[in-house]
Amino acid sequence: MNASVLVINCGSSSIKYALVPSEPDQPRLAGLAERLGSADARLKGVDSLGKPFTQALGGADHTRALEAILHRLEGRRPIAVGHRIVHGGERFTQAALIDDDVVEAIERTSALAPLHNPANLEGLAATRRLFPELPQVAVFDTAFHQSLPPRAYRYALPEALYRDHAIRRYGFHGTSHAYVSRRADALSELEGGAWLTAHLGNGCSTCAVWQGRSLDTSMGLTPLEGLVMGTRSGDVDPGLHAHLSRQLGWSLDRIDEVFNRNSGLLGLSGLTNDMRELEAAESQGHPGATLAIEVFCYRIAKSLAALSCALPRLDGLIFTGGIGENSAQVRERVIGLLPHFGLQLNRTVNSEMIRGREGRIDAGGRQLWVIPTDEEGQIATETRQRLAQSREETDT
Predict the structure, then answer these.
(1) What is the side-by-side order of every strand in the sheet holding 213-217?
(2) Are the beta carbons of 241 and 207 closer than 8 angstroms?
(3) Site Transition state stabilizer: which residues (predicted)?
């Protein structure tokens, strides 16, 4: 029986998609429509035989791109569409079956994620037009972190800012942290472990997970808070915004642009936001590359140490994301900065853990895991669960 879910992750000029079958051993159809709205818009991905393809889309918008994606599904009809929605505010603590009320609620939350939610909504509207007969489910990056207690999600600001304007810490990368922590529970045969998770890619965040629930995380109201990232600064002195405005005459738009797009690994190194290129440059003695990697790793370790306060005990540490899965050097440096945690790294195994491999890299003691994230698979799982829950509600 076909029980595939079409997972859609819609950006302002891109659509990432995956047709996720219910059986894990079945192949996925996946790809990316990019540069939408421009003359060189294109669709690239892999077919059911694992063969890569590239298709010119010639100025396509989101609807035309989704029509091309539909053709690439090779006649396989999904049972539902699962959408990645970045920000669900406080309303959404789990995946939601999409209707007009849910769409309106996502629109109201767009002020908290102006770079993401409007694009997510555009893709949602397009798929509702193309698949009017299919159930559509919204899976929120923020939902996994709605289990944070007030001491973790509240800022020390006047009550009215929270009460009237929903200013609080929300956290992101929830599908990734949920997937890898639950996968570690299964692999380690722990029933609800106590994990520190590090999602390290161009965007980075850490999380403290206890018995399948997020207790604290590094990102806050926006994805800018927390770790050093590819082009994002992460934490800075809150007074820096006012200082740059007063001393340099920068507008808020310029400050936002610099902190989000010109900082992080790119800003520190003056070279690139690509960790592979930075490691190569460091090996050639580039001081900017060395500084960027050292700050990056130190801030990860500092965050993990702080988040350990949220856990009643610590079973282990999980690395995921493009950098977390592939950079043995970053993993070793981060672990080396946490000597008081009793972590013992197996350097040989760690050096071999690249390119999608999964496994333990510790030499005993607390567990150290590398677990490739599967956000599409997690979204598909949550979509199926929400559909099952909806059927149960209808039956009762």
Answers:
(1) 213-217, 204-210, 194-200, 316-320, 367-370, 359-360
(2) no
(3) 173, 232
Q: Give 355's pLDDT tier (boundaries 50, 70, 90).
A: confident
Asked if 141 is an active-site residue, the reply is yes
Binding-site residue ranges for ATP = 16, 199-203, 274-276, 322-326
* pTM, rounded to two decimals: 0.94
| CA nearest neighbour of 23 among 379, 389, 390, 381 | 381
In SS3 terms, 87-144 reads as: CCCCCCCCCEECCHHHHHHHHHHHHHCCCCHHHHHHHHHHHHHHCCCCCEEEEECCHH
CA-CA distance, 2 to 22, in Å (whole number)? 8
Contacts of 215 (CB under 8 A, 6+ apart): 147, 148, 149, 152, 208, 209, 310, 311
Structure tokens of 385? 């669960």
Angstrom CA distances, 314 to 82, 276, 317, stand at 33, 30, 8
Weakest mean pLDDT among 109-118, 258-267, 270-279, 346-355: 109-118
- The pLDDT value recorded for residue 111 is 84
249 phi-psi bin (left φ>0, alpha ψ -120 to 50, beta other): left
Q: What residues contact residue 166 under an 8 Å CB cut-off, 6+ apart?
A: 89, 90, 112
Residue ranges for the known binding site for substrate are: 84
Model confidence at 27, pLDDT cuts 50, 70, 90, reads confident
pLDDT band, very low/low/confident/very high, at 2 (cuts 50, 70, 90): low
Residues in the annotated binding site: 9, 16, 84, 199-203, 274-276, 322-326, 375
pLDDT in tens, 199-233: 999 999 999 999 999 999 999 999 999 999 999 99
Q: Which of 99, 141, 164, 235 is catalytic?
A: 141
CA-closest candidate to residue 226, choices 292, 157, 306: 306
How far separated are the first and last CA of the chain, in Å rounded?
26
Please report which residue ranges of 270-395 form alpha helices under DSSP H.
Answer: 275-283, 287-307, 321-326, 328-336, 347-352, 375-395
Amino acid symbol at 352: E
Could you tell me if 229 and 295 are in contact, meaning their C-beta atoms sit under 8 angstroms apart?
no
